[in-house]
Each structure stands twice: as structure tokens, then as C-alpha cells.
Amino acid sequence: MDLKKRTIGLKAMEAGLIKDPEWLDRLDEPAPLWLILDIALQLKEDVDPPHKPFD
To answer: Quick check: 17 and 42 in contact, CB under 8 A?
Structure first.
């Protein structure tokens, strides 16, 4: 595994996104589309909440 992937995995662990250190050995495994879409939708809501006032 290259250093860039390992660094991203370690940052995710520091941020609390990964709790199990064994996941660092599985960074090359594919993720299902529904998971990627769920992450994208959560990020969109964080950046642009649906019930946020305009002013």
C-alpha cells in the first residue's frame, strides 16, 4: 500500500471515522455505491443545510 493511502487512513482514524485499526489494512477494498452516495449526501447537508435561513 502506498504512503498516500496510509496517510489518509491514519487521518480518518484520528478524526474518529475509523475505530478499528485493522481497517488500515483494508484500504484497497472497494466501497459500495450506496456508501459513497450516503457520505456525499451527508457532506452536502453539512455544507448547505436544507433548513438554513438565507440571512
So the answer is: no
